[in-house]
Design brief:
The structure holds 2 protein chains of 2 kinds.
Chain A (H helix, E strand, L loop, with lengths): L1 E5 H11 L4 E4 L6 H12 L7 E4 L3 H13 L4 E5 L2 H5 L1 H10 L4 E6 L13 H5 L6 E4 L3 H18 L3 E6 L7 E5 L3 H7 L26 H30 L7 E4 L6 E5 L3 H14 L4 E6 L1 E3 L3 H8 L4 E6 L10 H8 L7 E5 L9 H12 L6 E3 L4 H13 L6 H14 L7
Parallel strand pairs in A: 2-3, 2-4, 4-5, 5-7, 6-7, 10-11, 10-13, 13-14, 14-15
Antiparallel strand pairs in A: 1-8, 6-12, 9-11
Helix pairs in contact in A: 1-2, 1-7, 3-5, 7-9, 10-13, 11-12
Chain B lengths: L1 E8 L4 H14 L3 E6 L9 E9 L14 E4 L19 E5 L21 E4 L1 H8 L6 H12 L4 H11 L2 H28 L1
Parallel strand pairs in B: 1-4, 4-5, 5-6
Antiparallel strand pairs in B: 1-3, 2-3
Classes of the chains: A alpha/beta, B alpha/beta.
Chain lengths: ~425, ~190
């Protein structure tokens, strides 16, 4: 049924249709509306046989989900930002134990400085924990990916994160087609656990494993991710047949057939880039965009096939590995290893900085003239950075940078120089 | 694509107004996207929300920097933030005020604008009259339907009654209707004047 609803509400309705049996909730912006909506649905008994558990922290949220998943219950939770850091130990445990939990990440920056706005630092911090990570481009896809995520998680017995841009998607009212219960039931079978804590047939889950076996268990996690490379496109195909629309898959290409310049991005940024690409196409530029939906497993072969005929690749990413640069671009460069395709990185949108079509077009035009550095920072206020560096050189006790930059920006806006007051 | 930017203060229903606009457009079979400016909203602090309306899927996710229409829920913002940023003289302006543009000091600024596209409407007073609370958002949406011609009043009224249930919804829709009619009358007068 078509609805004009908030992204968080659409996600909650999709999760409800997946018949979760345990939902662990701890609020953190911008994910809170999702678990709030689910809490209301459980209270109104709109989700059958589901226990909604208010926990005392994010660490508890995922730890309880680990317990309930091991006991054979379809388990769900959601978090963001510092929340995923606080549950980091449990994030690794869920993957190491092979428990098919689905968790929404309402993508948000990580402090300090504290910031509630969107970027991808939070899920990226857990990219190597052994979870599958799927990124949603639209709210329709955010809803649909959750239905695929439970199926994927349970077929592989591997946890899945569905990454949804905080505020930009979670708080946006959009047109979303919410499927029927019959459609979802026909796609997502009952959860048949591969391991279960059952008093009638007792087993241990989570034994200590020494040097003789740890390596093999860790390798098996990698094996699951390799299997996911085959399973993700198959589940997307079946989803298209049953629901009549595209969602998920490893990657998607847009106007790439004859493209000289191909942009790579994740999440909601792809929509803005598509509009920028359309505008540039009208002006005669041969440009396209590849959207990576599955960041873990990283689809090296699919990315290579999509990019290898381009003259250049620009990766626009909302995350930043301090001290080296891009995170997504590392994977893209690995995919293109041995080819001669230059790959540029543009870090953009950190801490919620708007990524505008105007800035993107400027970036892509520079790329077409091969006038970019390998590492670029879209709309970084260089003058502000330079002044702060200079200030730090002048005095030993320069004080905190964030506060100094805020003062500097206030002075810029008011036109009254610092120190005048 | 038609892009609306709504300015107001925390507690005035700025974000809800954008949501209701998007629901009204959806009701008419159009595509719409509404979202807030993502601040840490606090009572009284300046808040901005956006709504895009189009006949095809809306993909872009950047804030609305070049609006086709501005709705100003609180005229005390005039001297606090750059309200009119990105608005061309072909744009629409609706300001919640009992005063005229000249009285607000905007006479000179609006000289290049089409006078049929700019209007003030006493939305707070209408809300007090019908709802009993100074929440101007619903009345302004009625005014927006009249000034922009983008949406039928009936779909705006349905969106309002969907957001606020029961009597509160009906009262808000009544405030919106009076604003709609007042703005239509002002536009007709402006046409006759011209």
């Amino acid at each position: 049924m078509l609805k004009q609803i908030e992204g968080s509400r659409a996600i909650a309705e999709a999760v409800a249709l997946c018949r979760p049996e345990v939902i662990c909730a701890y609020p953190i912006t911008p994910q809170t509306h999702i678990v709030e909506a689910l809490g209301e649905m459980v209270k109104k008994e709109e989700i059958e046989h589901c226990e909604f558990i208010n926990v005392e922290s994010e660490f508890a949220a995922l730890s309880v989900a680990i317990g309930s998943s091991a006991a054979g219950a379809r388990s769900y939770t959601a978090t963001a930002s510092q929340g995923i850091l606080f549950m980091a130990e449990a994030v690794y445990n869920a993957a190491g134990l092979g428990l098919p939990i689905v968790m929404t990440i309402g993508n948000r920056a990580i402090g300090a400085p504290i910031n509630i706005w969107n970027d991808h630092s939070d899920s990226m911090s857990m990219r190597d924990a052994g979870w599958i990570q799927l990124f949603a481009e639209t709210n329709q896809e955010a809803a649909d990916l959750h239905i695929q995520a439970f199926r994927l998680a349970e077929e592989l017995s591997c946890p899945v994160m569905v990454c949804v841009d905080g505020f930009i998607l979670t708080h946006a009212y959009d047109r979303v087609d919410i499927p029927t219960q019959q459609q979802v039931d026909a796609y997502l079978p009952r959860f048949e656990p591969v391991q279960i804590l059952d008093v009638d047939e007792p087993v241990s889950i989570g034994a200590m494993v020494g040097p003789d076996a740890f390596f093999e268990v860790r390798y098996l996690q990698h094996h699951k991710q390799l299997m996911a490379l085959d399973l993700i496109p198959r589940l997307a195909d079946e989803f298209r047949q049953k629901f009549g629309r595209d969602a998920g898959g490893l990657i998607r290409s847009y106007r790439c057939d004859d493209a000289e310049t191909i942009v790579v991005a994740l999440g909601s940024l792809v929509g803005t880039i598509k509009d920028a690409v359309d505008g540039m196409r009208e002006a005669g530029h041969r440009i396209g965009v590849v959207s990576i939906c599955s960041f873990r497993p990283f689809p090296l072969a699919a990315v290579r096939a999509a990019l290898v005929r381009a003259k250049r690749v620009v990766v626009v990413e909302k995350c930043f590995a301090v001290g080296i640069g891009g995170i997504v671009s590392d994977g893209v460069r690995k995919a293109l290893a041995g080819s001669q395709v230059p790959t540029y990185t543009a870090i953009a949108g950190l801490g919620g900085r708007p990524v505008t079509q105007k800035s993107l077009v400027g970036l892509f035009e520079s790329a077409q003239g091969d006038a970019l550095e390998q590492l670029n920072f879209l709309d970084l206020k260089r003058d502000v950075v330079e002044r702060e560096i200079a200030r730090g050189r002048k005095q030993r006790r320069a004080g905190p940078s964030a506060e100094a930059i805020l003062r500097d920006l206030r002075a810029l806006r008011s036109g009254i120089p610092l120190g005048a007051a | 694509m038609f892009q609306v930017r709504i300015h107001g203060r925390g507690g005035q229903g700025v974000v809800s107004a954008a949501e209701m606009l998007s629901i009204a457009a959806f009701d008419e079979g159009r595509f719409a996207q509404a979202f807030p400016s993502f601040g840490s909203e606090r009572m009284g602090a300046p808040v901005t929300a956006f709504c895009r309306i189009d006949d095809r899927e809306i993909r872009t996710r950047e804030p609305v920097n070049e609006p086709d229409a501005l709705i100003v829920q609180d005229p005390t913002l005039l001297h606090q933030i750059d309200l009119f940023s990105g608005l061309s003289p072909a744009g629409y302006i609706l300001i919640n005020s009992t005063r005229s543009f000249d009285e607000l000091g905007l006479g000179d600024f609006l000289r290049g604008f089409n006078h049929r596209n700019v209007c003030t409407v006493p939305a707070t007073e209408l809300a007090l009259k019908y709802v009993g609370r100074p929440l101007p958002n619903a009345a302004l949406l009625g005014g927006f339907a009249a000034i922009s011609g983008q949406l039928h009043f009936e779909s705006v009224a349905r969106a309002i009654e969907g957001k606020f249930s029961g009597k509160v919804g009906q009262a808000n829709a009544a405030a919106a209707r009076e604003a709609y009619e007042a703005v239509l009358a002002a536009r007709t007068a402006e046409t006759a004047h011209a």
